[in-house]
Amino acid sequence: MNYIVLDLEWNQACNHEFENPRIPFEIIEIGAVKLNKKLKLIDSYSSIIKPKHYKKIQPHIKSILNYDEATLKKGRPFDMVFREFIKWCGTDYIFCTWGSMDLSYLQNNMDYYYMKPFPSPLKYYNIQQMYSDIIDKESSMIKLEKAVENMAIPVDRPFHSAVNDAYYTGLILQKLSPRDIEDRYCYDVYNNPKEKEDEIVSYHKNYMEHISKEYDDKNEALKDAELFSMICYRCGKKISKKIKWYANTPNSYVCVGKCWYHGLVQGKLRFKQSKEGKIFAIKTMLPTDKKGMENIRKRQDELRIKRQEKRHSKAN
Ligand SMILES: [Zn+2]
For 2-8, what is the mean pLDDT? Predict the structure, then answer.
């Protein structure tokens, strides 16, 4: 199996009233590198796309790009480029991207042109997330440039051209050990599970991920006892509650439980909005320790005090 490290550049409307809601982000460049199963770089792909909607490059995008509107004019239409790109990918591959946006925008543009969707569920590697999990646990959503700098990767070509960014992302991937990579796949949620039978439950070495079905709204989801069940990331058994689920932010919940065999387990649940405006949840269960549990409890107490203060000030 090959790794297709993909990167896109996109443009958007100059202001909201000119935005086409079916395609808020229009792809203007597809770049990728192909790594074989031994992580050797074996090929690259690069194409400029002639935009249909947003022909003027937005200033904040233009300031980082290495080309302008004249270059875009010489590009080819999205559907033509995409077909060529997919053919180039081959038959046995997995996508790798820096962050989760590229696959989402790619599929939105595919939808816009009524192209055949990717098989669902779509597995991929989020290299930005893997960098945070393996290399720099303090980092989150770190920029590609910064990660390249931190890993002392020589910079021999400019950033913000899709193929170059894909190349740098590929070099970061090369620095991870194949054993580390294999287990850290995730699922793209652009086409999120709709029904119970579509739900995704995947067990990894050190965490479990559950992508729920769709709910009409958050209240409906909050009533689903199974969604909020605490289970062990290793054995999948129901575990006893140590700290009940509480809202950490309006759309994220945390809990702590204990598995008789595998110790303390932390749960995280995030609500996400589907592209049709419904709600689904991503629940992860992962190991924690006493200190981790104490921190979660401390945070819960702080939130409780804040809420009480708020209520108090309202009452006065
Ligand atoms: Zn267990």
Answer: 97
